[in-house]
Queue: 3 jobs
Job 1
Amino acid sequence: MNPGSIALIALAVGLVIGVGLSAIIAWARRSRVTNSEATSAEVPHGAAEVLDGMDDAACVVDASGLVLATSPAAARYGIAVGAGLENGEFRELVRVVRASGIATTETVRLSRSAVSLDPRLVSARASVLGGRLVLLILRDITEQERLEQVRRDFVANTSHELKTPVGAVILLAEAIESAADDPDQVRDFAARISAEAIRLGQLTRRIMSLSRLQASDGVTETEPVSIDEVVAASIEAHAVQAESAGVELIRGGDRRAFVRGDAQTLIEAVGNLIANAIAYSPAGSRVGAGVKIDGETVEIAISDQGIGIDEADRERIFERFYRADDARSRRTGGTGLGLSIVKHATQRHGGEVRLWSRPGRGSTFTIVLPRIDGPAGQDEKKAKKKNKKKKHARKGSATAEDARVGNGENA
């Protein structure tokens, strides 16, 4: 073998050995870094910045249960850097995930003692971050769960309420068919079918109104609304009901108050209060509608001299389909949705509903709404119209006086 071949072989062997040593050194370095990360109790680079930008509550917990880093929202749950997790369910979730290495999500209900908030429902997700650290993310799903429960209750209650009039109509229709030869019974059954149909229509309309108000686009188009016109329209719509019940409707208070909103929605809300007041008032009593301008708000109070509301019922009186006096509500055609519509309509207009009541003395429901200035020129137009009427009245009086003088009445 010549010297050139030996040199080439030596060079190749040296190259292979060099590459192998480089690979071994690189592998050793990677192993050392990986082992260091797996056993490190330090928050990975960049994790703190990510936590700072999170809206949800989140924290990084080490093997001893100590919190190393948090997001700003974590303070709402009593989680702070340098302290342990106070909630036992959170600690157990972190322990299980660290042992299994598998990310896990659980729903946890927090009581007042756990956090400085009202009882909340939280979705907690824990995942491994490195070898010894666990990332815990908390998402408040209380409102989401409440809306889902509201939806289930609404469907169940609506189905139950609709069954009664629908079932009655079916039974009465069958009764009419079997009593076809008795005109008196047919007329009686037909009248009862008509009453049930009216009740069914009223219930359907109110369900649709409530659904519209509870939707995100409940009140989309707003404009200045005259409270004078709202109250007047509400009273006029229930004048016949009041006359039939022997109840006097009276109106008083401030005038020329304006709010921003939807006139028809407010008329329906005030009308529901007036209808309830009439239904629960004895004959010969009064139902009053009063308006008060109080700084930046307008108060519309509907008062009656009826049976009043027990204290136990006041907390639930605005719930859908809730009736303080179920038997009386059914006799008067009540749907249990009127006050719920009032509540949601008022909230949609940025206001609130207040209740005062004493059993045997009556009740007062007060709608409080943000007040706005009237449309430009509105008061001026009304003043001009009023002055014009006065001038016309004076002119008419003068003409009548001249006529009397001409006829010799003052001679």
Note: The radius of gyration is 38 Å.
Job 2
Amino acid sequence: MPRASRLVSAVAVLALGLSACGGSSGGPATAAPGAPGVTKEPCPEAIDKSKGCIYLGAISDLTSGPFHELGAPLTRAQQAFWRRVNLQGGIGGYEVDLTRHVVDSRYDPATHQRLYRQMKDKVLALAQTLGSPTTARILPELRADKMVAAPASWVSAWEFEDVILESGTNYCFESMNAVDYAVDTWKSKSMLVVHYDNDYGADSLGGARIAAERNEIAFKTVATAPGAERQSAAVAAILADKPDLVLLTVGPADVGAILAQTSRAGYQGRFIGNTPAWSKALLEGEDTERIAAVKKQFVYVSPWKAFATDSPGHTAMRRALGAVRPNDNYTSGWVWSYPLKAVIQRAAANGDLTRDGMLKAVRQVTRIDYEGMLPAQAGDFSGDPDSAAFRGTVFNVPDPGELTGVRVARDFFTGPSARGHKLTVPCSQAS
């Protein structure tokens, strides 16, 4: 049964506020006359000019939004990923282009929607749609257009969408694991969630609340907005309540501002940051008090291991990128590309590189080869949302000696809260 049919009502609320890659892609695939994003003409930077071109799109945060430190490197990694695919011979008689249709929404939902509408008739699929609220804004149109998209976000609602190709653990299970880890490791008895008032924040908040109730620990929340200068209310709440644990569902600049201000005021509790909260820049600069607080008090959770990890996928990524400053956002961009590659290969093998063919291929892909960057079970999309969702989280501690500033403290941990939760609705909708 298609994932989209399993939770129509819950996903509608959100919209308002893969057999593996590596198999044969068959002979030259065909596309219906006028199929968007597929041409007989070669790609602009073709390696083999006898091949046609599959155009992919990316709507990212590249310059000034709260996640531009994520968007720019992950986009570069995705471009390197598809160059590698082309160097390996392409897919079904085509090479893949992710250079012509790359745009910057600055994490603004209205801009994201406008840019999508400008792009949608020019690409076969979206290699990237960055952000949870931005992707939710275009989700009804993705469905209507049968536009398969790889999200640069991890909300649990994506588990219920055929057009969305998610990878890794969602924010909901990530936050559950964070709470269980804090209780198990630090014996935490109280927590405060500082979160953006959007889909990213709501999904993390839902998971944290479920785990807090299961662990019977005191639980409070405070909503905040992106911007280091806007964190006074969050800082005041932390200093007033002095919780054992603060879960930060924000961006890196806001993490730095909150830790700097609370540490100067004497707060000694623990912080855990969701995946988008980390940047090695938190360990750099002249603010020695902030750096000391990050080293001592902060733990970062992630859906996969860091840039320097020894796996076939990590190794291929580093070779494809060449001489770059190590950054874990490169890793995210690379990992997010595997499911879309698997779907394009399946559609090509079916001889149907159209929107309908892509959506049909999504439903046929039951396993994805992440080349060791995720455990094998992470690529099994054959079940319902609850059985298919991957729940393991990597816990990292800051370490200036590591290439990207973090060292693995616990490897793909799944706590009892995530293990025991029945995912029947997105966590932002769970009561």
Note: The chain has two domains: 3-168+307-388, 171-302+393-429.
Job 3
Amino acid sequence: MDAQLPDVEAGKRFYGELFGWTFGVAEAYGDSVPARLGGEPVAALTPKTDGRMPTVWTVYFSTPDAGALGERIRAAGGQVVGGPWRVGPAGTTALAADPEGAVFGLWQPGRRPGFGRRHQPGTFDWVQLYTRDTEAADTFYGGLFHEALFGADVRPDFGRVAVGEVFPAEMPPHFLVHFRVADLEAALGAAARLGGRTQVSPFETSYGTVAVVVDNQGASFAVLER
């Protein structure tokens, strides 16, 4: 996953203090700055090159063939909104949208396989799709990713819920990435001190206690205490 930010240096200060991340140097291909925890990759911060584009976190689904998956997305009623693009030796990426317009990424790994850590404090723990038509979402994503989403030996990382259950019903369908934290209230206090704000106060879910935060540049994400 990565955050597209107007000011990557400000993002490094915010997320570095909030989650204890350190950062590598911007890579020559795409200017993406890798974020690490304990030396392992956990995310990336990417400079937003077009001010008309949203400031967002994007989740990427791994695939052995981004082009072929893009064709399946189109056939299922979604669309490929950008790419596939080769990102140097790291891999190949594309941006797609489901039939309701929720945007997600595709990642065909090269040298960069994906997360080095997850399901630990300061790392990815869950992504939730907020959608208006949960049955249509089940059909679309189940058809694309059935083994990854529903395989018996795979720990679930992905859920979906009707958008009106947490956000106003008029909010567009979207993905929300969740970061694990050891202490939810402490994380919310730290985010506020760093210039962020709580968008949705803590609430209980089947997978833990969640709050939604907006960072100091407007990108939304969730913090999750299990």
Note: Residues 77 and 98 are 7 Å apart (CA to CA).
